[in-house]
Amino acid sequence: MPVSAEYRPEPRFFALGPDYADAVRAAAFPETILRYRNDRAAAEVGLETLSEAEWIAAFGRFDPLPGQPGPLAMRYHGHQFRQYNPDLGDGRGFLAAQMRDASGRLMDLGTKGSGSTPWSRGGDGRLTLKGGVREVLAASMLEALGVPTSRALSLIETGEALERGDEPSPTRSAVLVRLSHSHVRFGTFQRAAYLNRSDQIEALTEHVRALYHPTVAAGDVPGLMQAITAASARLTARWVAAGFVHGVLNTDNLNVTGESFDYGPWRFLPAYQPGFTAAYFDHGGLYAFARQPEAVFWNLTQLASCLAVVSDAKTLADALNGFGPAYIRELRAAFTMRLGVKSLGEAADQRLVDTTLALLREGGEALRWEPLFFDWFGGFASSARALSGPRAKLYQGEAFDAFRFALMEHEPDRIERLEHPMFAAREPEEMLIHEVEAIWAAIAADDDWSAFLAKLERLEAARAAWGFAG
Q: 160 near 92, Cβ under 8 Å?
């Protein structure tokens, strides 16, 4: 299978051995209809030159890419809604390949819906086409908003009729491939700790340090904990600034690089609602919007308890306790980024965060979440645009005056971004559930992919307009 000169295979996880994963085979699907390919992401790892037939062979039949040994279903445990489950692992996916991107980062090709594995627990190992469409949309929106995220690389419809208890059935099937900077989860360490395998924890620790946090010195386990904590704090702050609710923040859904992945019952906020939940089964609101920092911190404590098997518990606790201050710093940075202004220092940046949230709270459903950041992107440079736009009547009163004062203190950052045609529109790109459902309804009823493709084109334009770095 010919690939470009930029393709650099480096299957490093495979070298850890059989204690961490199981060799598996992909399902043989009755159909392989290419519905989405992300050539921009593919180009980062040298796969953009594949023809459609070669693409389907690689990501529909899973013929191994050059230099790759074949699929591995990864082993891990995890807390699910804080209940420990030792019967997890890749139940409908596998690690298909590893390679370096142009910047030298080790990247994974991971699947979803590729068939049953030893960890399927009676499931069929499949993915609904709707689930695949939703993951493509979530990853595209998050990337545009500057959230560190996996990218959906490929979506192929597979021609099977699936029965599901939580959506109309039978429903169409698909296999998704994501490009991600590591699938080593907190739960990967939990499995080794559960089995009392300090040797596995030591091997995993060095693997993660060397490949994902190489600035940490060899043997410095607290330093690694500090790096993972800092990356997780940054991710959580970016979620919050994006108004994003992951929905299922179990320990098997957080990884060691602080990159978001595995989008199931996600939602973007319709308006500022701290208690807003994404998963219909999250009855207690454990993973509600405003509780996501708490959830990530709790998961980090589980990782620290695993690393304590091979390191000093007190120094690990010191590293762990850096999460709170790091999160606050990252939240200030995320809000200034989203509003397109430069940092003015801790006090002024915190004032901007506080007044933005106060205005969002007061504006409620009339203001929503995303429009505020769209209207006022660039600070004072956007005053005329915001005050003549569709929400002009909302921008008055004490909460607005406090917000405007805090915003106007800050100098615009890269003001030339406002010249992008996106900022001439009256409304921003959002990703609210009614639009997601409408996109799917057209596919389900008429096999009409036009709204899906048009949305992705607009999100790509938004990504270019915002100019955020994930």
A: no
- Residue 100 token pair: 């370096």
DSSP 381: G
State pLDDT tens for residues 179-238. Answer: 999 999 999 999 999 999 999 999 999 999 999 999 999 999 999 999 999 999 999 999
Q: How far apart are CA 324 and CA 186, in angstroms?
A: 19
Q: Distances in Å between the alpha carbon of 356 and those of 34, 339, 345, 367?
A: 42, 10, 16, 12
Q: What are phi and psi of 221, to 5 degrees?
A: -65, -45
- Rounded to two decimals, the pTM is 0.97
Judge whether 413 counts as a catalytic residue: no
Return the number of other C-beta atoms located less than 10 Å from residue 43's C-beta.
15
| C-alpha span between 25 and 14 (Å, rounded) | 15
Distance CA 358, CA 344 (A): 20
Alpha helices in 277-391 (DSSP H): 292-307, 313-320, 323-338, 346-367, 370-375, 383-387
Residue 463 tokens read as 């990504």
Q: Of 220, 261, 268, 199, which Cα lies nearest the Cα of 428?
A: 268
Instruction: Say which residues have a Cβ less than 8 Å from residue 435's Cβ, sequence separation at least 6.
Output: 455
**Residue 310, both tokens:** 């091979």
Is residue 407 within 8 A of residue 339, CB to CB? The reply is: yes
Q: Are 322 and 230 in contact (CB under 8 A)?
A: yes
Q: Which residue has the tokens 């911190």?
A: 297
- Separation between Cα atoms, residue 140 and residue 460, nearest integer Å: 8
User: Which tokens is 379 given?
Assistant: 């600070």
pLDDT digits (tens, 9 = 90+) for 282-315: 999 999 999 999 999 999 999 999 999 999 999 9
Please answer whether residues 75 and 21 qualify as being in contact, where contact means their C-beta atoms are separated by less than 8 angstroms. Answer: yes
Angle between the 323-338 and 346-367 helix axes, to the nearest 10 degrees? 60
Distance, CA of 52 to CA of 462 (rounded, Å): 27
CA distance 148 to 181: 10
Which of these is catalytic: 90, 108, 252, 262?
A: 252
Q: Tell me how crowded residue 334 is: count the other CB atoms within 10 A of its CB.
A: 24
pLDDT tens-digit readout, 438-456: 999 999 999 999 999 999 9
The string of DSSP letters for 271-296 reads S--TT--S-TT-TT-TT-GGGHHHHH
- The radius of gyration computed from the CA coordinates of the chain, to the nearest angstrom, equals 22
Q: What is the spatial distance between Cα 300 and Cα 324, in angstroms, rounded to a whole number?
A: 12
Cross-strand pairs, 318: none
Q: How many Å apart are CA 81 and CA 77, to the nearest integer?
A: 13
Q: Is the dihedral of CA 131, 153, 150, 78 positive or negative?
A: positive
Burial of residue 124 (CB within 10 Å: 0-12, 13-18, 19+) is middle
